[in-house]
């Protein structure tokens, strides 16, 4: 794949979007919006030195929302022929005719729509073919097995190169879109103290993702690190029930930001199913915490000049010095709340929990002192109505800033309100997962339920 191999140009996608909007108006729609997209890619998985999976994907689709006054209908298709586009519009119209009126339905406020948005530079095609992808996957896995004979099995190493593009348009006159890429390297392995040790086996994994394949670390490091993580979990113990400080490893600390986004999202707010109800302008986190949202990050996974409704995005502080500065609202949820869209239809944009200290991971362990380092969480134990938090966990018991031994089969519990306000420090060991970036996060006290 020496260059992007889309089946359609951006101009062709814009023309298709224009056809849909024209059909909608001609058929009697008061308003309409359309999203036209396509993507292609290659994914390869190798396991135990053999090719396990080779997958080529090529997809396209068009989705249409039709408004008849304040009645809304939706339909989609993977057929781009003019007859299929007309049929899709007609299907959405028929649905709209029989739906109940909703006084919050409709297009985004024209005053908030992005004006002449700049196309972000987010497409970095990966020039890799099947043989090269296979060799790379095998290299990643081989690096894991090379670490120790105690790496006894593998769930595989994968290489994925993905490219997509879209165009969004609506009957208010907005139309815009751009291409993007997203690539992955991953490895998952199993460690055991001996070939006969079935009860003491431990699994762990690691992955890297990038817009630009040039930003990947050396591939062998992915397998090497996955192996070392699995090995470090051998001979895990249980803990007795206790209360202690908890350090969330950076990839898991990102979940704390994700919980904030969910709790402060418009849908949960207008349904009153969130523990952050009516907290705008109030202190919800420790006063040392600032969380930003920036849709302009170069090569960011959630970068974009407009959201899924064409509303202009902007950089902002979501939390500043512990105080909640803004919610995450689409046009619909904003109307439900009597507020204005924040440009978050479709999700958040490059969230960053800013470091509060210059401590790397080793220094964060010292700051933890004696307590629990969490490296794996299981289950979805967050009650967004009450804030109650309870999840299965594994990690390491730390004594005087040094990892003492691995632990498993424990549960960590608390309440998100207390956890947010109990954040002691955010480390400088930053990592990005999807739309969010954070370092490790130290919380002053949580309950550990164990043996």
Q: What's the story with the biggest beta sheet?
A: 6 strands, antiparallel
Helix fraction bin: 10-25%
Number of helices: 9
β-sheet strand percentage:
35-45%
Content-based structural category? alpha+beta
Runs in which pLDDT lies below 50 for 5 or more consecutive residues are: none
Widest sheet: strand order?
A: 3-2-1-4-5-6
The total of beta strands comes to 18
| Head-to-tail CA distance between termini | 54 Å
Question: Measured on Cα atoms, how large is the radius of gyration?
Answer: 24 Å
Which overall shape is indicated by the principal axes computed on the Cα atoms? Answer: globular
Could you state the order of secondary-structure elements as H and E? HEEEHHEEEHEHHEEEHEHEEEHEEEE
Mean pLDDT across all residues, rounded?
A: 95
Question: What would your notes on this structure say?
Answer:
The chain has 451 residues and is α+β, with helices and mostly antiparallel strands. 23% of the residues lie in helices and 36% in strands. It has nine helices and 18 strands. The protein has helices at residues 10-26, 82-97, 130-147, 219-232, 250-263, 266-270, 331-337, 361-368, 416-421, and strands spanning 31-47, 50-68, 71-77, 151-170, 175-191, 202-210, 242-248, 291-293, 316-320, 323-324, 351-353, 371-378, 388-399, 402-415, 423-426, 431-433, 436-438, 441-449. The strands form three sheets. A six-stranded antiparallel beta sheet has the order 3-2-1-4-5-6. A six-stranded mixed beta sheet has the order 10-9-8-11-17-16, covered by helices on one side. A five-stranded mixed barrel has the order 7-12-13-14-18. Strand 16 (431-433) and strand 17 (436-438) form a beta hairpin. Helix 1 (10-26) crosses helix 2 (82-97) and helix 3 packs parallel to helix 4. The relative contact order is 0.13. The mean pLDDT is 95.
């Amino acid at each position: 794949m020496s260059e992007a191999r889309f089946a359609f140009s951006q101009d062709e996608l814009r023309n298709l979007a224009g056809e849909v909007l024209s059909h909608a108006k001609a058929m009697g729609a008061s308003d309409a919006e359309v999203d036209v997209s396509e993507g292609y890619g290659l994914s390869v998985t190798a396991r135990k030195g053999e090719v396990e999976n080779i997958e080529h994907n090529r997809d396209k689709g068009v989705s249409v929302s039709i408004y008849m006054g304040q009645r809304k209908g939706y339909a989609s298709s993977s057929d781009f022929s003019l007859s299929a586009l007309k049929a899709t519009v007609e299907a959405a119209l028929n649905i709209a005719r029989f739906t109940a009126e909703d006084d919050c339905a409709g297009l985004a406020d024209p005053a908030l729509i992005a004006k002449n948005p700049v196309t972000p530079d987010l497409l970095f095609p990966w020039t890799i073919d099947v043989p090269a992808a296979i060799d790379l996957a095998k290299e990643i896995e081989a690096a894991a097995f090379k670490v120790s004979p105690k790496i006894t099995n593998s769930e595989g190493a994968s290489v994925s190169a993905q490219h997509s593009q879209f165009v969004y348009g609506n009957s208010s006159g907005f139309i815009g879109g751009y291409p993007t890429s997203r690539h992955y390297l991953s490895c998952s392995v199993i460690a055991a103290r001996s070939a006969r040790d079935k009860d003491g086996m431990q699994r762990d994994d690691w992955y890297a993702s990038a817009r630009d394949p040039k930003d990947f670390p050396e591939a062998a490091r992915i397998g090497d690190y996955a192996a070392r993580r699995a090995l470090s979990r051998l001979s895990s113990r249980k803990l007795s029930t206790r209360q202690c400080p908890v350090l969330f490893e950076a990839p898991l600390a990102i979940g704390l930001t994700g919980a904030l986004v969910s709790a402060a999202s418009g849908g949960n707010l207008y349904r009153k199913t969130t523990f952050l109800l009516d907290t705008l302008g109030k202190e919800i986190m420790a006063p040392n915490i600032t969380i930003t949202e920036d849709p302009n990050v170069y090569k960011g996974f959630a970068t974009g000049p407009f959201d899924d409704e064409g509303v202009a995005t902007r950089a902002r502080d979501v939390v500043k010095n512990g105080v909640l500065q803004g919610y995450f609202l689409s046009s619909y949820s904003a109307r439900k709340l009597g507020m204005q869209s924040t440009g978050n239809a479709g999700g958040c944009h490059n969230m960053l929990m800013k470091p509060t200290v210059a401590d790397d991971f080793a220094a964060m362990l010292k700051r933890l002192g004696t307590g629990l380092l969490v490296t794996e969480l299981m289950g979805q134990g967050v009650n967004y109505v009450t804030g109650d938090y309870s999840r299965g966990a594994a990690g390491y018991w730390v004594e005087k800033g040094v990892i003492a031994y691995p632990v498993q089969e424990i549960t960590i519990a608390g309440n998100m309100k207390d956890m947010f306000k109990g954040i002691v420090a955010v480390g400088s060991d930053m990592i990005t997962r999807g739309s969010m970036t954070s370092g490790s996060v130290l919380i002053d006290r949580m309950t550990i339920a164990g043996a």
